[in-house]
Amino acid sequence: MAFRDECGVFGIWPMPEASRQAYLGLYALQHRGQEAAGICSRDNGRLHLHKAQGYVADVFSEATLDRLPGDAAIGHTRYSTTGGNVASAAHPFVVEGRFGQIALCHNGNLTNTEILRHRLIEAGQVFSSPSDSEVILALINRAQAPSLEDAVVEALRQVEGAFSVLILTEDALMAARDPHGFRPLAMGRLGEATTFSSETCAFDLLGADYVREVEPGELVVVDRQGTRSRFPLARVQARPCVFEHVYFARPDSLVYGLSVMATRRDMGRLLARRHPVAADLVVPVPDSGVSAALGYSEESGIPFDFGLIRNHYVGRTFIEPRQSIRSFGVKVKLNPVRELLRGKRVVLVDDSVVRGTTSRKIVSMVRAAGAAEVHMRISSPPTTHPCFYGIDTPDREHLLAARMDVEGIRTFIGADSVGYLTLDDLQASVKDAGGESFCYACFTGEYPVTPRSKGTCG
Amino acid sequence: MAFRDECGVFGIWPMPEASRQAYLGLYALQHRGQEAAGICSRDNGRLHLHKAQGYVADVFSEATLDRLPGDAAIGHTRYSTTGGNVASAAHPFVVEGRFGQIALCHNGNLTNTEILRHRLIEAGQVFSSPSDSEVILALINRAQAPSLEDAVVEALRQVEGAFSVLILTEDALMAARDPHGFRPLAMGRLGEATTFSSETCAFDLLGADYVREVEPGELVVVDRQGTRSRFPLARVQARPCVFEHVYFARPDSLVYGLSVMATRRDMGRLLARRHPVAADLVVPVPDSGVSAALGYSEESGIPFDFGLIRNHYVGRTFIEPRQSIRSFGVKVKLNPVRELLRGKRVVLVDDSVVRGTTSRKIVSMVRAAGAAEVHMRISSPPTTHPCFYGIDTPDREHLLAARMDVEGIRTFIGADSVGYLTLDDLQASVKDAGGESFCYACFTGEYPVTPRSKGTCG
Amino acid sequence: MAFRDECGVFGIWPMPEASRQAYLGLYALQHRGQEAAGICSRDNGRLHLHKAQGYVADVFSEATLDRLPGDAAIGHTRYSTTGGNVASAAHPFVVEGRFGQIALCHNGNLTNTEILRHRLIEAGQVFSSPSDSEVILALINRAQAPSLEDAVVEALRQVEGAFSVLILTEDALMAARDPHGFRPLAMGRLGEATTFSSETCAFDLLGADYVREVEPGELVVVDRQGTRSRFPLARVQARPCVFEHVYFARPDSLVYGLSVMATRRDMGRLLARRHPVAADLVVPVPDSGVSAALGYSEESGIPFDFGLIRNHYVGRTFIEPRQSIRSFGVKVKLNPVRELLRGKRVVLVDDSVVRGTTSRKIVSMVRAAGAAEVHMRISSPPTTHPCFYGIDTPDREHLLAARMDVEGIRTFIGADSVGYLTLDDLQASVKDAGGESFCYACFTGEYPVTPRSKGTCG
Amino acid sequence: MAFRDECGVFGIWPMPEASRQAYLGLYALQHRGQEAAGICSRDNGRLHLHKAQGYVADVFSEATLDRLPGDAAIGHTRYSTTGGNVASAAHPFVVEGRFGQIALCHNGNLTNTEILRHRLIEAGQVFSSPSDSEVILALINRAQAPSLEDAVVEALRQVEGAFSVLILTEDALMAARDPHGFRPLAMGRLGEATTFSSETCAFDLLGADYVREVEPGELVVVDRQGTRSRFPLARVQARPCVFEHVYFARPDSLVYGLSVMATRRDMGRLLARRHPVAADLVVPVPDSGVSAALGYSEESGIPFDFGLIRNHYVGRTFIEPRQSIRSFGVKVKLNPVRELLRGKRVVLVDDSVVRGTTSRKIVSMVRAAGAAEVHMRISSPPTTHPCFYGIDTPDREHLLAARMDVEGIRTFIGADSVGYLTLDDLQASVKDAGGESFCYACFTGEYPVTPRSKGTCG
């Protein structure tokens, strides 16, 4: 129960009914963004676009997919919008320019958007949305390079920050990842087709095989000649975002080649070693705390059970009684199992604490259900700094752990004890993917790329 | 992963903004029916109705709730429709007759509907839908009794089968349960208000306290004079439906006064004792198999983990590629965690097997993900007979266990072994609520009430 | 610009795709009701229903029409709802009873509904809506007669007031008109099929031929044996509603066998003779005053022109500026042509004046556009009494002409002169259909049938 | 019954609730485009946009207008889309660039779009739609001029063809009309506010006063300093489109300062003089032929009547019976009045003939209704050439009059005689606005501006 999700991207080439495959891919990536969805397909050198606000299943129908013909497609599912007009911020973005039509969608935030945008505007460029994608598209079309592929490289060399980007042109599908590789991007194979996805769970639904990660700094180009790879961007230490493993990714995905479920379980085990407690029951905050809670239970020997039940029918709207003095907030989503919790010393396991208000309500709810003690265990270190690389975090002053120490947090959320995972432990849990060099900026404030401006999460 | 859900009912009196409280109640009971929802409120002796197809959150808006004023309300959430016009089958039903306006909604199936309907039609009655509710309303209005309360009793004495019914009149709220008490109905208290709900999870969301069950054969009347109880119906052995505990109810509910989560866990423990197996991993079929799987794991000592991940964003529509030769079916909802299952001897725990086709796909999916062995464990006995008391089951010839023995089932679903809970074990798991006398007809074919015709599930 | 419309009915048998033909018929009858629409079809002895709020074009889609198979259908388009739940008041009503399924829809108001309803309720009948249709259906099912046809007759003999009714059963289509024949009902032929419609404009769209009126007191039965006629109801002087010719019907329809356009033109001619005036321009209040205005112009020799232009894109909603002190009301629909009206002595022709508020706004609008004089001419007598036979009129105290004489009306609406058609003239305009005996109750208060209670307009 | 409509623009500054006033304006201009609508408002130097497909009344709600705060607004209603994505072609377009945010909408077609677009693309510009508006916005942002106003002038000097454009910036509202003044644009006053509209009927609804036309080649700027005018564009002979008077504009509008109703009536009178015929009845093809038909009747002395009735409830969809061999086409919209036409020699008056197929159906319909003779009279000359200045016409080969002479047309549409207005007569009808120099290119092929490419109708 942490930060809000970011975005998911998916692409495939060449594949009959490519837009329907992209629909499948986005369906599996829905957890990465529920605000808007879009697919752009390529048919005989022409691009076709449909995007709108809403869930993937609502945005697309047989009819809209029929209007997206062709053998190549990219798609995007989006969470949050920075600023006003939600509709205009949906991806992919499609423009016509020097190289004909180009569609682009990305996951991640650029950190020098404002500078680039300012420079482009000075040169007469106009923008119809605040999206980083439009900046990249403008850079491509203003590049000196004569070929589209080189223009893409020239553009990507100018942008800083985090981007896992998919580009669909009249002749090719390209996938690129920023030099630090902040955001994930996996490559798969389905028959003849090459496919890209933020997470491998999309490959599972399509029946595609996971091949490998698109590497930090890599540009993969798929076209009629086949699939080729370049490393045209600066070589730097890779810094994949650890939070994908802590919270974002679906547990059945591989991210950076590691099983998310396995790393979370490890976090839970390490958490149990670091912060043991005499207790009767390990209870996850569903759904994100489940794997870590299982690990904690396994390591500690304390029984695991679902002491909080999630209502899976929670919709976008919920109407509270007008005269109610109670706030429904978390109650609509979670209900404690009184019979299970009554009289028990409970270890509550969650993945992270952001503002602390939800944690406070949950602790209070568990106590009200009769728990004798409530021990909060967090499967990541205290979140003290905002993210500038694609995760929608509150400003620093709203991060609970930036404002107080662990004892303060304990008092604030009303727990009997609070235990966080250490940075070392977290690094250990992802060590098989070179985890010691991951990006831990939200825990440490050590930003791999200086954030010069806040981009628009794509 | 079993039968389809049935219906849920909720009522409250007296309570400001009663329709908004009913909305909350139905929100919590959404798992009992996603096809349609409706609320009828009472304001100054007039009834106001809104019902439509769809989820509770979609059927009701601030505007529609504003058109349901008053201090009393009943509501219904409905799963399946027997026959054509879905809209006309939504509850509550409201009619005007001898006793003014009456609204009625129920959970359960009558078993003598056809006979009663035929008799009423002979007497000149007309029906606008196939619902059992209309039959009950007609009987009430044709009763000899001069008072409405007695007319309700007279009507309920004529109907056979399963009904947990809520009736809202111009002056009173009534709740009744058939003499066998097939379907659950709990009574709660919220300040001055008396409230009724199919499950206690609705009370939790409202902040109401659970008081007790409405007893089999009981009629509870709430009006300006307060709350009073009668037992006007035939006294027989109570036969509550055990399947509420096996599958239907939310785990955080009390049903028949028992914690659903606790009984399921017990079923899992007993299953482990009855059908032990040398294995590496206990994997639930989510979400209904989770508690039993935890019990199985606890009892057996075999580690528990989520080897199948459920996609919580599955909507009403899913568009498959046209040229696909694969069937997506269960893949859209469940994805195996390859890294977890690979090479493992897996115990799959599910609550029941109906037709067997889904189980077969899941076993196959788990094998394809690399499991070395797949042992299916079912936390209930073989389902051999259809239900006539409110659960939407296929005909007997479509019930896998009616057509073959356990070895046949094992072969059909492709498992290495299959183990069912015994009837004795199941009875033991609910013994604290007098479970030996529950209705087990779907396992035994011993029907407490002879089904004379198939009613319309309400 | 007068009373609100009432309802339209359409039926056909036998005809492939009967529901699609009914859709066409309702499309042409849309002016008779924009609130709700419904069609019931008959296929192999089973009835299928779809009805909802909204325009015909919005209520039905290819998909909903596909769910209405069969070779017979009846349909209804409805204007106003008396009382709350709009949805439950849509026609046709379909019930199952002694004679199997019966669908019924009607145009008109019964005048003894309350008495019948009370009597039926005493006998144990219940009603799910306030519609007169449900009363008729209950009477049919409680009739002594053994055959459905005789039961229909027995039922219709008990009801008083106005009804043009279509009944679809498992075996037959029936059309009946009350003994006074208050509301119109025409019979047509399309190939082998017999068809019924409130107005002949529906026949034109289908390509059907007009055959004759269903006569007052007649019952026409269409079934496999063919089409047969009976006159089972009391023989009384026919009293067709003259207002159909004054305002309701489409000008291209035949009503009671007379061309509506022709009678309206005659009304205008007679009006010019009765109330001549020295003027420069005859301007209709569109659209209902157009034909009478042409007649006035022709007879008087004063030029005709469209000095008021109607905005044909007026939708259901119109959002006024919040700080506006002007009321948009009639301005949204009508705009004066300043260049035409400036300095002119204008004869404004409208069909009737109900409350007078709209007329007042229009006169004021025409003056503001520069007219030197405004002479109001009304192509019917002063409307002094409410209708109880199917037209939605305000109570007597809201009828302008019931409260004041012509000079008072002139002052109220601000015209230089006001002239109404006389009753004699109006009778003359419809004399070819026996117009002297039509129902003129809204002008005279002489009600052919004593209104004992207000029915629900169908 | 002619070409399809084009577009309408409306703007206002300064005015409380400016977006609601723009909504009123678009409501009145709905006849100029039913495909999409949009409004951009300005509040404290920030622009707010809402646009979508559909009617004005459907696109905007209280809620969407509340999200458009501020005291200045421009709006657009759009008919046709050239090419694919309808949504992306809705106006206004809003971009952020050198001069901050700029919103732009226009009526008209540029004739050098392709050249400009190509040049801009070469310079690195990208476009997200095929709209001419984006080209103008790009030119503004790439202009050398340091001030926004001069940049607008610099941009408008580069574009050729037809444009009546409204521009809303962070500080000002601008209105400009191309040097030939092809499309109309009127200026009005409402209290302190200056307002612009394609037609004056919008002023009438708002209660604004008509001030004057925005002149060909004029740029009007409204800002905090007031309203000022410049004529920065090339001085050429003005060439307003005569077709606005023939067909497009609402009859209650002033266009180029002339009453549309009056000019149409004159066209009818001149047509009667030019092509007299012995006949019994003048019948307009509604609604566009009405005024000319009145003029024809007046001049010829032949009585006028509505022999064709238009169904005003025609929606966007109409479902035809599947097995129908008849085409419903025009029948859905128009119904002949048999009683009126039978045996008559009919003069049918329409404003123009494009492809001829509709005229053919109407003539056939009138004959089938019993007319003895059908004489077609067209209140404009033969349409022989496509429009490049903002009217959506078919290619030349689909224009009936480009393919055959009048006798051929007569045969094709099946009339007894056909008479067109002459060019001289048409010029005479608009002579009070300098009509001899209007644009008559669709009748003559003499294009005031060489069409170098087909722009996108805005």
UniProtKB/TrEMBL annotation, chains A, B, C, D:
Residues 7-225 form the Glutamine amidotransferase type-2 domain. Coiled coil: none annotated. It comes from the Bacteria. Pfam families: GATase_6, Pribosyltran. Its cofactor is Mg(2+); [4Fe-4S] cluster. Keywords: 4Fe-4S, Glutamine amidotransferase, Glycosyltransferase, Iron, Iron-sulfur, Magnesium, Metal-binding, Purine biosynthesis, Transferase. Mg(2+) binds at residues 288, 350-351. Catalyzes the formation of phosphoribosylamine from phosphoribosylpyrophosphate (PRPP) and glutamine. This is Amidophosphoribosyltransferase. The gene is purF.
